[in-house]
Write a structure and sequence with these properties.
This protein is 41% helix and 19% strand. Strands 1-4-3-2-5-6 form a six-stranded parallel sheet, with helices on both faces. Helix 8 links the parallel strand 5 and strand 6. Catalyzes the condensation of pantoate with beta-alanine in an ATP-dependent reaction via a pantoyl-adenylate intermediate. GO terms for molecular function: pantoate-beta-alanine ligase activity. Keywords: ATP-binding, Cytoplasm, Ligase, Nucleotide-binding, Pantothenate biosynthesis.
Length: 279
């Protein structure tokens, strides 16, 4: 039976006992509103670790739009039932003042990879991500941490954080889970209207077409422009970016022989969708 813990002291006491028994501890950080993508991370953690923690915390520090924070779905009871079914041992669901107690002033900033794309459009977002992830790693004392590749830039930020600060945790990036029509699973999809949900897979389809264009020799700028036009033609409200970048640094491509990633962000139904694919 999955146990829900609310305080750092409770969590550390449990983890101390696990480690005394020789267990490898895995953590799956989430903001709740769980879907099959999250559950795939939990199952991977269960397969590779003796004990697993899933954190559920809607982190106010990473929202640069207060309205977006307010609208973010919160479904703890349903989430707990799903995690119990998967077999996760502990849910850590702290209150905001447990994570950021009175007097809290510290922030973690990761340079470089956090700067382009999301970093430009959402100032302070990755500072919030890096800070809460560093805290969750410290609270959980986990040996392995599982993140989805759907948030590709976030995954690179976390990997850089761990490398630069010599954190004793292995970061595992897991494949994006998609619905049968190609839409990347996201908690934000719950906010789409029926019509918006029908149109939403156009983002992924346009990215696949752009990747084919690039591989066949179409100039990068032309391929990205075609993809943007295709997404808008399918009824999206706006496209913030569809960009081909170095997969590790997220900078513009200067060496086409390095691994590349196409990343996108677009709005439909007042919902911001992001996605990425390898190229």
């Amino acid at each position: 039976m999955t146990v829900i813990l609310r305080t750092v002291a409770e969590l550390r006491a449990v983890v101390r006992g696990w480690k005394a028994e020789g267990h490898v501890v895995g953590v799956v950080p989430t903001m709740g509103a769980l879907h099959e993508g999250h559950l795939s991370l939990a199952r991977r953690a269960k397969a590779e670790c003796g004990r697993v923690i899933t954190t559920i915390f809607v982190n106010p520090m990473q929202f640069n739009n207060p309205d977006d924070l307010k609208k973010y779905p919160r479904t703890e009871e349903a989430d707990a039932a799903l995690l119990n079914w998967v077999g996760v041992e502990v849910i850590f669901a702290p209150a905001p003042d447990e994570v950021y107690p009175p007097g809290f002033v510290s922030k973690v900033t990761v340079g470089g990879v956090s700067g382009p794309l999301e970093g430009t459009l959402r100032p302070g977002h990755f500072e919030g991500v890096a800070t809460v992830v560093a805290k969750l790693f410290g609270m959980s004392q986990a040996d392995r941490a599982y993140f989805g590749q759907k948030d590709w830039q976030q995954l690179q930020v976390v990997q850089r954080l761990v490398a630069d600060l010599n954190m004793a945790v292995t970061v595992v990036g897991c494949e994006t889970v998609r619905d049968p029509d190609g839409l990347a699973m996201s908690s934000r999809n719950l906010r789409l209207t029926a019509e918006g949900r029908r149109r939403a897979p156009a983002l992924y389809a346009a990215m696949l077409a752009a990747a084919r264009d690039v591989r066949s020799g179409v100039p990068e700028a032309q391929a990205m422009a075609r993809a943007t036009a295709a997404v808008l033609a399918e009824g999206f409200d706006s496209v913030e970016y569809i960009a081909l970048r170095d997969a590790e640094t997220l900078e513009a491509v200067t060496d086409p022989d390095r691994p590349l990633r196409m990343l996108a962000a677009a709005w439909i139904d007042d919902v911001r969708l992001i996605d990425n694919i390898a190229v």
